[in-house]
Amino acid sequence: MARTKDQWRPVPAVFAVGAILMLSGCSSLFGPGTAIEMVNPALSRSGPNAPVASAASVIGTADSLRRNGQAAQAAAVLENALIGGTPTRPLLLSYAKALAAAGRTAQALNVIDQAIDPANPDWQALMVKATLLDESGNGAGARTLYSQTLKLAPDQPSLHANLGLSYAAAGALDRAEAELQRAAALPGAGPDVRQNLALIIGLRGRLREAEVLLAADLPPEQVAQNLSFIRRIRADGRLNKG
Questions:
Q1: Dihedral sign, CA of 30, 31, 34, 35?
Q2: C-alpha distances in angstroms, 47 versus 78, 195, 221?
Q3: What's CA 238's distance to the chain center, in Å?
């Protein structure tokens, strides 16, 4: 979603629920940024004479493409790597993110299921699946999976933050705030967590508290713009204020 000068501008989270972030003027999960123009040609060709790239190089190129608005090209890079290759968990995770960014959520869910081993669960793969469930409209299923995954990785701020954003998208702002507060208190929490926490606090009517949180990371002009956005959301009644 294009950003205008009076829209909310949190730093994009590593994983973020599209419903709440699109409402707040940001791109959705795995969404686009500024397009890049060059792709490593060794990673964009397939066939018997194509150079063989390492999985890490393929993932790095694909993730850069995805983050910069070229999701379809990112998916193609990963498809080429997976053809005849070993479908490792990191490759499948990157592929699922690229598919989701390209709007192919159902296919992304199928891919992420291949990356999940019930006998050896990985919290990152489960988090991606939960986020995809949110993207597909299954918020209740997403929140159940987030909660289960938190038992594996209780100190991961991204898990608490995404669970909070899922609650926010469902209008449960009290529970959203509680999870985002937990996320913000954990080591490794970034400015995206604090800004989304400020959004929820502001939507609950505590604008001064939201302003203080925003000012910790943003210049005064952007703080004012984001507060204006919160006021409009509250006035429009687009989210419950619970």
A1: positive
A2: 14, 46, 52
A3: 21
Q: Which residues contact residue 227 at a Cβ distance below 8 angstroms, ignoring those fewer than 6 apart? A: 202, 207, 210, 211, 214
**H or E, element range at 231:** helix 220-236
pLDDT along the chain (242 residues), means of 10: 41 37 34 30 39 77 91 92 86 93 94 93 94 94 97 96 95 96 96 95 96 95 94 79 50
- Determine which helix (DSSP H) or strand (DSSP E) holds 101, and give its type and residue range: helix 89-101
Domain count along the chain: 1
Instruction: Say if CB 6 and CB 229 are below 8 A apart.
Output: yes
For residue 173, report the phi and psi dihedrals to the nearest 5 degrees. Answer: -70, -30
Tokens representing 1 are 């979603």
Check residue 237 and report its DSSP letter.
T
Phi then psi dihedrals of residue 158, to 5 deg = -65, -35
Distance CA 9, CA 23 (A): 11
Query: Would you state the pLDDT for residue 53?
Result: 61
CA 46 to CA 192: how far, in whole Å? 38
What CATH code is carried by the domain that includes residue 102? 1.25.40.10
Three-state DSSP state, 181: helix
Q: How far apart are CA 63 and CA 71, in angstroms?
A: 9
Does any domain span residue 3? no
**Which structure tokens are listed for 153?**
């990785």
